[in-house]
Amino acid sequence: MIAKTPNPPYYAVIFTSVRTEGDNGYAEISKQMVELASQQEGFLGVENARDELGITVSYWKDLKSIKKWKLNSEHLFAQQKGKSDWYKHYKTRISKVERDYGFEK
Known about the structure:
Elements: E1 10-19, H1 26-38, E2 43-50, E3 53-60, H2 63-70, H3 73-86, E4 87-97
Antiparallel strand pairs: 1-3, 1-4, 2-3
Helix pairs in contact: 1-3
Organism: Salibacter halophilus
InterPro entries: ABM_dom, Dimeric_a/b-barrel, Jasmonate_Hydroxylase-like
GO molecular function: monooxygenase activity
């Protein structure tokens, strides 16, 4: 589903990853992280897709909200599990959304 975001400006955290073999608890923790992120101040929405390459884009009101999420204790635990168990490699990019547009029937 496409996230319903406010009018720009806002920020996007783009997390791109390649997984290791097996689930190893990933699906459950991933779901928990989306639920937890959605409760954080400044969270605007999330979109994700996974095949061989996974892409999760979360949208935030400001950089302060992103930093608080990055330092959330449960999120820090998930980040460590990601490095030790779930990802072959990943990259996180943070960008400011200056403009958006779309189409809906």
